[in-house]
Amino acid sequence: MTRPPVVVRTRRELAIALVPVPRRAVVMTMGALHEGHLSLVREARSRADQVVVTIFVNPLQFAPTEDLERYPRDLEGDVALLAGAGADVVFAPTVDEVYRDEPVVRVDAGEVGSRLEGAHRPGHLDGVLTVVLKLLHLVRPQVALFGQKDAQQLMAVRRMVHDLDVPVEVVAVPTVRDPDGLALSSRNAYLDPSERQVALGLSRALRLAEQRARAGAGADEVRLAAAAELARTDRLVVDYVALIDPVLARDVAGDHRGAAVLAVAGRVGSTRLIDNVVLEIEETA
Ligand code: PAF
What we know:
- There is one protein chain.
- By secondary structure, the protein is an alpha/beta fold.
- The chain has two domains: about 5-175, HUPs (Rossmann fold); about 185-280, Pantoate--beta-alanine Ligase, Chain: A,domain 2 (2-Layer Sandwich), CATH 3.30.1300.10.
- Helices cover about 35% and strands about 20% of the residues.
- The chain has a six-stranded parallel β-sheet, with helices on both faces. Strands 7-8-9 form a three-stranded antiparallel β-sheet, with helices on one face.
- A hairpin with a 2-residue loop joins strand 8 (about 260-270) and strand 9.
- It binds pantoate.
- Pantoate binds near residues 30 and 128.
- Pantoate binds near residues 30, 58, 61, 131 and 132.
């Protein structure tokens, strides 16, 4: 039997809803939930006694030109989905509740936030880390779960936790895809059917690169194969295709061996999408 989660809107209500348990998990979201978020919540459920889901569209991580205003919002629908996935508490604060004053001190994602997403969305990962740290302080979880889909965000959060000694275990959860390969994202809602076909170029490029890596191709060949596939995709404007190390998001060299993340970003019409795959590079071919 599923029990609807308790929905709280203020820090005070949240503090009351946090029961003393050995292990509390948090899943942070911006709402417009889909199966990818629900897989994070189910994983959280299997690891913790209390599961808190935060729903907050964080203005600090959007540039003035980005989609803050039109970002999809559906609290009622989200809460209904979360009831089935095992969330105990939903914390859905207002902007004023989270940022009582304009934040003067912010978290700087440093090198891990300056490349790729950071280069295309300056300040984005600083905004993400600032709200993640605030939510960690408010929820006080033992474990926090993040999707592999936002690979660079995951790296930045891991590094913040490491560098600032934040007492929380960070768990990565695999990307969930539609049967056609498109990685689930709240922004997929912006795509019309023909744009969706274009967007499939991203996952196609990743699959191709994965096949090359499995066949023993080296780092350069793997990256170039993905880049060529993306270049072939009409109406896809590629922001980047990069093969990076999984810790600091630095480009890996052509002679790299071992784990690497192939990260891609592109725009279809006015919608910007990102995707990635974790590969093992063992050049043998
Ligand atoms: O991945 C997201 O949805 C957001 O970046 C996060 C982690 C909830 C911070 O606002």
